[in-house]
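Can't paste images in this forum, so I'm doing it all in text. The chain is below; anyone willing to post the predicted structure tokens underneath?
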Amino acid sequence: MKAWFLPGGVAGAVALALAPAAALAELPPLCAGTLLQLQVEERGKAAFDRFRFDLGLEAEAPTKAEAMALLNGRLAELRAVLRPLQSGELTIPAPSTYRSGGGSGPSAQPVREHASTSVAGEVSKARYDALIQAAGRLPGVSLRGFQAQAAGGTEADLQTALMQRALARGRRQAEGTAQALGLARVRLLRIDQRQGGELRPMPYARMAAASFNPEEAPPPERSVSLGLDYCLF
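Text version of the structure:
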């Protein structure tokens, strides 16, 4: 028989399963007492010094050739604006095209050819607002998102800290459960580690008159999830 509990908490979550050792066929031979299974998750935010940006670029015209020519012109203008602001190289995939409109009757719309691509790269925190303001005002450009990038070394430090917090949280939970059962000892049998991902890019649906403060952007967030087996005896 298993009983599951999910305590609350803003910093992490713990799920546990409790069962007599003799009732579990998969019980490790080192445990002659009660097996406690925990699922512990810890989350944290890393310091960041730059952003990964994703810009959309579109153009439309009566013909495909005109749409592509307009797209190329807008891309050249965007490159010129980004050049003094970007860090490193840009990533620009091949453009895609599609047609809209056409048909017959009173509701028919003029045929329009559309061409689009995207432009991705990195920008420092110091030039974050300048890039948003400059690129966001260009015709055919959309700000799809900005994603904070962890500063060098801070991500590894954060992962280590999250691991330590998760292990400490699991140990406290195991010791509390053992005390409630009248047991005296706790032994860690197994660790199953799973690392979480990062936040998705922050979208901008429209431009604002005020400037954008990089410190108000969502920082990189990481998580560590551990499956822990304890023997209580």
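Residues 1-14, 21-25, 198-209 have pLDDT under 50 and may be disordered. The chain has three helices and ten strands.
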